[in-house]
Design brief:
The chain is mainly α. It has helices at about 5-10, 15-20, 40-55, 60-70, 80-90, 105-120, 130-145, 150-170, 175-210; strands spanning about 30, 35-40. It has a two-stranded antiparallel sheet with strand order 1-2. Helix 8 (about 150-170) packs across helix 9 (about 175-210).
């Protein structure tokens, strides 16, 4: 297909496609004339992936380039190729500096989290961005005096594991690597707000069932009063 057809089928403007070509995010097409090239289905798949990395995943051009470099390197297996996309999504959390007031609590929580993951037999790299994010979140909870015990965290982990298994089963149905990476980015980025929204809705339902019959509780039908 010509550049104009590639643009039409992908939904990416011609100018943006040319930008991706200049940045090395999209391989050049096969030259037909001095000013025209042909593009194939592999360009269409790669273009959709690039768009997912930059638009859905919110990555920088350099981060997207790093993901694509790993994706194209046969030295890496499928696990590493999918994982690099997730790692680039962020957020990036750094531990407090040595000697900082919160560093002692951070180290304590980090040790407890690693112990929990060992107990669960989860295979997680120490460099996983989500690991540092989890430590930061639990540290913040405890520093403010709220519950942040490992028994509570274990319940969340056990509840989320079947969801992760289902999602990865769906992603594994994509035999083409570019499509699998695109699906990984989509499930990670787009489905996390769904999980959070469902948790809040579940809170509302449980609260209504606990308190709707009591004084000052929900009004008729379990709907919170706006008075």
């Amino acid at each position: 297909m010509r550049l104009s057809e590639l643009s039409a089928r992908s939904g990416v403007s011609v100018a943006t496609v040319k930008y991706y070509l200049r940045e090395g995010l999209l391989a050049p097409g096969t030259p037909v004339t001095a000013r025209q090239s042909d593009y194939g289905e592999e360009h269409l798949r790669r273009l959709r992936l690039v768009r997912a990395l930059l638009t859905v995943g919110g990555m920088t051009v350099q981060q997207a380039r790093d993901v694509l470099a790993v994706a194209d390197d046969p030295a890496f297996g499928r696990h590493e190729r999918l994982g690099i996309a997730t790692y680039m999504l962020g957020p990036r959390v750094e531990p407090p500096d040595e000697g900082a007031p919160e560093r002692e609590l951070w180290d304590q929580v980090a040790a407890e989290v690693r112990e929990l993951l060992t107990e669960l037999d989860w295979r997680v790299y120490d460099e996983a961005p989500a690991l540092a994010s989890l430590v930061r979140a639990i540290t913040s909870v405890r520093s403010l005096g709220y519950r942040g015990e490992m028994d509570d965290i274990r319940k969340y982990a056990l509840a989320l594991r079947p969801i992760a298994e289902e999602e990865l089963t769906v992603i594994d149905d994509y035999p083409v690597l570019e499509e699998a990476i695109e699906a990984t980015v989509a499930y990670t980025t787009l489905y996390e707000p769904i999980l959070l929204a469902l948790r809040r809705l579940a809170h509302e339902d449980v609260s209504a069932r606990l308190h709707e019959a009591g004084p000052g509780g929900a009004n008729e039908g379990g709907r919170p009063s706006t008075a």
